[in-house]
């Protein structure tokens, strides 16, 4: 019998606190598309059985960092935006180490629908947003300049409460 600590090591979840899980009608195709379009690296793959194509579990990273889980629609309340009229109940934000504009062009060439072209944000990042083929909205960002909280507040026009941003 495997204890909880060993399971945590097996699934490498002891280094993160939150891990989003994104669900697809066709998770195998989604995995291939996410690797091709967004350049994600597969860090874990448990393929589905023929009898139950929703039983897969994939984990992805970018630049050896981060973690997002990809899976199928394994219960009635877990759905792809394609299954619920395109609605998103969550979006995903991914920090890139650099090359945001090239990343956007790679995604566009792979068929991503660009929701927001690359643009500098008030908090010092350059960001773009794109929909994947099943309608999940992804935001990609690269840090381009340091911004103080006071500068961000002035640009935003309202106060920002933060315990970590000076």
CATH-defined topology: 2,3-Dihydroxybiphenyl 1,2-Dioxygenase, domain 1
Write the H/E string, N to C: HEHEEEEHEEEH
Strand order of the largest sheet: 1-4-3-2
Q: What's the name of the CATH homologous superfamily?
A: 2,3-Dihydroxybiphenyl 1,2-Dioxygenase, domain 1
Strand content: 25-35%
User: What Rg is obtained from the alpha carbons, in whole angstroms?
Assistant: 18 Å
Please describe the topology of this protein.
Layout: H1 4-10, E1 21-24, H2 27-38, E2 41-46, E3 57-62, E4 65-72, E5 92-95, H3 100-109, E6 113-120, E7 125-131, E8 137-143, H4 149-156
Protein described:
There is one protein chain. This protein has 166 residues and is an alpha/beta fold. It has one domain (17-156): 2,3-Dihydroxybiphenyl 1,2-Dioxygenase, domain 1 (Roll), CATH 3.10.180.10. It contains 4 helices and 8 strands. The protein has helices at residues 4-10, 27-38, 100-109, 149-156, and strands spanning 21-24, 41-46, 57-62, 65-72, 92-95, 113-120, 125-131, 137-143. The strands form 2 sheets. A 4-stranded mixed sheet has the order 1-4-3-2, with helices on one face. Strands 5-8-7-6 form a 4-stranded mixed sheet, with helices on one face. The chain is elongated. The termini are far apart. Residues 1-13 have low confidence and may be disordered.
